[in-house]
Every structure is written in structure tokens, then in C-alpha cells.
């Protein structure tokens, strides 16, 4: 591997990536999470706690708190930002240029890994600065210890970003994981990995969460001899009244801990090297190569063409344009969907008709409304992905096309949630029906707004998967489908609120498209 080649590739890719809106989007999310991670006692929630206890907000505790919470967010959200480096080179033609150079495959994958790590590392640096600000704002101890404050970012956040950066490169080189399926697989792996890390600790604690959790528990036991529940809760959880506090002196930095965290970074580098084994250097498959060679061979043959008159212009097809637009947008959404997806959707429909009614609201409805996430993520992005956005804007009335695109997404939503709707209607659970209707309006509106604003499917995938996971963990504040209601419980005014948010999202989408159209 040439260090000069790898360095040039890394720096150029990093400069291009930090100019993207998705980088700013995840960066702002990380800063907001850093702020929310250190709430006052009157907030009613906590992001990290051990049972009914929290540490005193000093440098060591705030640093560990934001390093773990922010690292967990960037492990998921950051992956969606950096997992497009190889695809971008292929789409832009840069990959074909690089393929013509003597650069080795391992140099390319390692360069992309380092570029990903730089992008995620920049976010970690901003998180560390946010931690300093939060100590100044919420600090409950004396002087600020910068070493204790920032050491958790170096020991835990950076290795976590290394694994994320390497996984992004590896997933892009393995064909089945290149697109939306890979994003979902990584989300599941990250959530499972975080859960395992909380429970593990010690030598198998790859992400480092368990190491901090064990140290926090020891401090709780030392302060309160009979503490009761000392389970670690990482994520938004309701706190009824102020939690009891304890002093945490910080981690005991041992050679074993440093070696373990270094080993995680070396593991990440190994994954980047391993990715070179699947990297094809932008060489098409044999069948594709043969098809691509055909035009070149044909160009070498003398062309003989008989004189022909131009065909007459076809007559305009008149009729209800809204129906044709709707069917066209629907075909775009379902294009390329595997028949296995349809079999799974049919299985969910049948299961929703026969499971006990208590399971219809949760989990059947949430499962039904996570199933089409890859379809929804196409809303607002397909024109840009196919590079036909200017052509579409110039040929079709924007308002009609916007309505057709939203309606296609709403139909997919209705179909995958049809069985729970039928069961709720049969049980006269009108509160559930109202919540279902609000969810029907909200999901395609959110997908269309996020897709229009970011022009990438990954943004909605990351946002929706995170919201869905929070919903499944009982965060009632974002219950957009009524899944956290008890059977027969009134939905109150929440369906109206959710529907109002959906209307605002549609308005944002419309204004964004109008502004872009006027700007052109």
C-alpha cells in the first residue's frame, strides 16, 4: 500500500463529504443529543442512568455520558452518512478513472475507511466541545478536568467510529448489502451490539458501554450499600422526580483497557483490508461487460441505413392525468421489490387477522409499518437518484405530481397496515382507528419531506428506524400510530396533533420544491 496514494484519496474524499447536507444533518443531531444527554432534574427524563441513580454532573461523568450517548447515535446515524463513498465514485465515473490507475484494491478500501473515520471523527470532536459546554452550563462540581472530560471520547467514541467506518466500506463492497437492505442490517446489528455491550463488560465488550456501566454500578454500590436495581438504561427514559446522585471518580485506566480499545481500532482496519477481497475495482460482471462491449463493436462496423421519413407526431392522450400520475408513481415505488417482500407482507396481513386483539395494536401494527421502509425512503428522492429531476419538473405540474407521489406512499402504508385497521374497526376501537388514520397521513408526509430536503433515501431510513425503535421501547412522545395505547383506551387529541404535523410536513415539501423550481 502506498501511504501517499491513501493519504490523497482520504483527504479528497473527506473534503467532498463534509460539504454535504447529510453531514450537517447528523452533526446537528449529535450536538442536540449532547445537549439532551445532560438534562436538569426538572426535565422528567434521563438518557443514561443506573437504576434510580445518576452521577453528579462533573467532568468525568458528563464526558462519559455524552461520549457513550453520542457514540451510540453516530454508530447508527453516522453510518448512513458515510456509506456511499464507493457508490458515489461509481456513479460519478471517478471509479472508472481510478480503476485505470495502478492503485491496488486494498489501498482504495483503506483510503475510504480513513476518510469515513475522519468524517465521523470530526463529529466526535464537536461532541467533545459540546461536553465542555454542558459542564459549564450544568456542572455540579468544582473545576473542569479536561483529561477526565475528553478521555472517554478517545477510548470509546473513536473506536466505535472506527468500526462504523469500516463496516460502511465492507457493506458497500458486498453486493447484497450495498443499498437499503445493508442499512437495515447495520441498524439491527448496531442495536444488538449496544445491548450486548451493556450486558457484557470485560474482554468481550467491543463497544465499551459495559465497561463504563460496571464502573458506574460500583460507584452506586459504594455510595448506597443496598441500592436495589442497578441496571443500566441507555436511551430516553422517563424519570419520576429527581434521581439520587452519586460521585463517580471516572474510569480506572489500565493497560488492559487501553489495549482492548486499540484492538477494536485494529479490528476496524482489518475489516477495511478484508473489504478489498470483495472490491471489484468498478469492473462490471461478465454479462454486463459483454453487453457494454456491443455498442463499441457496433461502432467499428460501417453503418448502412436506408432513407426514412420522420414518423408523424403521435396524438396527445387525453384523460384523467391524476390517475396516470398516481399509477406511475406507484410503479416507481414498487419497482425492483423482491417477491419475498410481497410474501412477507402477505404473511403479516394473515397474522394480523388471527393474532389476539391485544397484539394487534402492538406489535403487529408497528411491524406492518416498518416493513415498507425501503419503499417509503424513495419518496422525494427517486428523481434525483435517476438524474431526471429537471426533466420531471419541466414536464409535469409540480402540485399534481407531489399529490400523486404522496398518494402512492399512502397506499403502501394503508396496505401494510390494513389487517390492524380491520381488526380495530371490527372491535369498534375508534380511538385506534383515529390513531391509525393519523399514522397513515404522517408516514408518507415525513418520508416525502425528508427525501425532498435531503435528496437521499438514507436520511429517512436512519430517522424512521430510530423513531420506530424508540416507539418500540415505550417512548410515548413519538407514538405516531397509537401503538402504545391500552386496548380500548381513547386516543385523545394525539391523532389531531399527528395529522397537523403531517400537514406541516407536506407544506414544507411543497415550499421546498417551489423554491428550488423558482431558483432554477
Keyword list:
520 residues, mainly alpha, 2 domains, two-stranded antiparallel ribbon, two-stranded parallel ribbon, 4 strands, globular
Q: Care to describe what's here?
A:
- The chain has two domains: 3-275, no CATH class; 321-519, no CATH class.
- The chain is 68% helix and 4% strand.
- The protein contains 22 helices and four strands.
- It has a two-stranded antiparallel sheet. A two-stranded parallel ribbon has the order 2-4.
- It is globular and about 70 Å long.
Describe the secondary-structure layout.
Layout: H1 3-17, H2 21-36, E1 45-50, E2 53-55, H3 59-82, H4 85-92, H5 94-99, H6 105-138, H7 146-173, H8 180-200, H9 209-223, E3 232-238, E4 244-246, H10 255-275, H11 286-300, H12 321-334, H13 339-354, H14 358-368, H15 373-376, H16 382-385, H17 389-395, H18 398-416, H19 418-426, H20 430-454, H21 457-472, H22 494-519
Parallel strand pairs: 2-4
Antiparallel strand pairs: 1-3
Q: Termini, distance in Å? A: 45 Å
Helix content: 55-70%
Structural class: mainly alpha
Instruction: Give the overall form.
Output: globular
> Unreliable stretches, pLDDT < 50, 5 or more residues?
286-309
Main beta-sheet strand count, sense and barrel state: 2 strands, antiparallel
Instruction: For the largest sheet, list the strands in their spatial order.
Output: 1-3
Secondary-structure element order, N to C: HHEEHHHHHHHEEHHHHHHHHHHHHH
Determine Rg (CA atoms, Å): 26 Å
- Strand proportion, as a percent range, falls in under 5%
Amino acid at each position: 500500500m502506498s501511504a501517499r496514494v491513501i493519504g490523497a484519496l482520504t483527504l479528497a474524499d473527506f473534503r467532498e463529504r463534509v460539504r454535504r447536507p447529510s453531514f450537517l444533518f447528523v452533526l446537528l443531531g449529535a450536538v442536540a443529543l449532547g445537549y439532551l444527554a445532560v438534562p436538569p432534574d426538572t426535565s422528567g427524563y434521563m438518557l443514561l442512568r443506573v437504576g434510580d441513580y445518576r452521577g453528579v454532573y462533573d467532568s468525568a461523568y458528563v464526558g462519559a455520558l455524552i461520549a457513550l450517548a453520542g457514540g451510540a447515535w453516530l454508530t447508527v446515524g453516522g453510518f448512513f452518512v458515510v456509506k456511499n463513498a464507493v457508490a458515489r465514485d461509481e456513479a460519478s465515473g471517478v471509479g472508472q478513472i481510478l480503476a485505470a490507475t495502478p492503485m491496488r484494491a486494498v489501498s482504495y478500501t483503506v483510503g475510504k475507511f480513513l476518510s469515513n473515520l475522519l468524517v465521523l471523527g470530526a463529529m466526535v470532536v464537536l461532541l467533545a466541545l459540546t461536553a465542555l459546554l454542558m459542564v459549564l452550563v450544568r456542572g455540579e462540581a468544582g473545576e473542569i478536568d479536561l483529561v477526565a472530560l475528553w478521555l472517554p471520547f478517545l477510548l470509546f467514541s473513536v473506536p466505535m467510529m472506527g468500526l462504523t467506518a469500516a463496516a460502511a466500506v465492507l457493506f458497500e463492497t458486498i453486493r447484497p448489502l450495498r443499498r437499503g437492505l445493508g442499512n437495515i442490517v447495520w441498524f439491527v446489528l448496531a442495536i444488538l451490539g449496544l445491548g450486548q455491550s451493556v450486558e457484557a463488560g470485560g474482554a468481550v465488550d467491543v463497544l465499551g458501554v459495559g465497561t463504563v456501566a460496571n464502573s458506574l454500578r460500583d460507584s452506586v454500590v459504594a455510595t448506597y450499600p443496598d441500592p436495589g436495581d442497578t441496571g443500566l438504561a441507555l436511551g430516553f427514559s422517563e424519570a419520576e422526580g429527581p434521581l439520587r446522585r452519586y460521585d463517580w471518580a471516572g474510569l480506572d485506566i489500565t493497560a488492559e483497557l487501553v489495549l482492548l480499545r486499540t484492538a477494536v481500532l485494529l479490528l476496524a482496519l482489518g475489516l477495511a483490508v478484508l473489504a478489498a477481497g470483495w472490491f471489484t475495482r468498478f469492473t462490471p460482471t461478465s454479462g454486463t461487460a459483454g453487453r457494454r462491449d456491443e455498442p463499441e463493436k457496433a461502432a467499428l462496423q460501417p453503418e448502412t441505413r436506408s432513407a426514412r421519413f420522420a414518423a408523424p407526431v403521435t396524438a396527445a392522450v387525453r384523460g384523467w392525468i391524476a390517475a396516470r400520475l398516481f399509477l406511475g408513481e406507484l410503479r416507481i415505488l414498487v419497482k425492483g421489490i423482491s417477491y419475498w417482500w410481497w410474501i412477507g407482507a402477505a404473511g403479516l396481513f394473515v397474522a394480523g387477522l388471527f393474532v389476539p386483539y391485544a397484539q394487534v395494536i402492538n406489535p403487529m401494527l408497528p411491524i406492518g409499518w416498518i416493513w415498507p421502509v425501503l419503499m417509503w425512503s424513495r419518496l422525494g428522492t427517486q428523481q434525483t437518484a435517476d438524474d431526471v429531476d429537471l426533466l420531471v419538473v419541466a414536464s409535469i405540474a409540480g402540485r399534481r405530481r407531489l399529490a400523486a407521489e404522496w398518494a402512492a406512499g399512502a397506499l403502501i402504508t394503508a396496505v401494510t397496515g390494513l389487517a390492524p385497521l380491520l381488526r380495530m374497526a371490527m372491535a369498534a376501537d375508534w380511538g385506534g382507528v383515529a390513531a391509525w388514520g393519523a399514522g397513515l397521513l404522517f408516514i408518507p408526509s415525513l418520508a416525502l419531506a425528508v427525501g425532498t430536503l435531503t435528496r437521499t433515501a438514507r436520511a429517512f431510513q436512519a430517522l424512521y428506524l430510530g423513531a420506530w425503535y424508540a416507539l418500540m421501547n415505550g417512548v410515548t412522545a413519538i407514538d405516531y400510530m397509537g401503538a402504545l395505547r391500552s386496548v380500548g383506551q381513547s386516543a385523545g387529541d394525539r391523532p389531531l396533533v399527528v395529522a397537523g404535523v403531517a400537514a406541516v410536513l407536506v407544506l414544507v415539501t411543497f415550499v421546498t420544491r417551489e423554491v428550488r423550481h423558482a431558483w432554477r
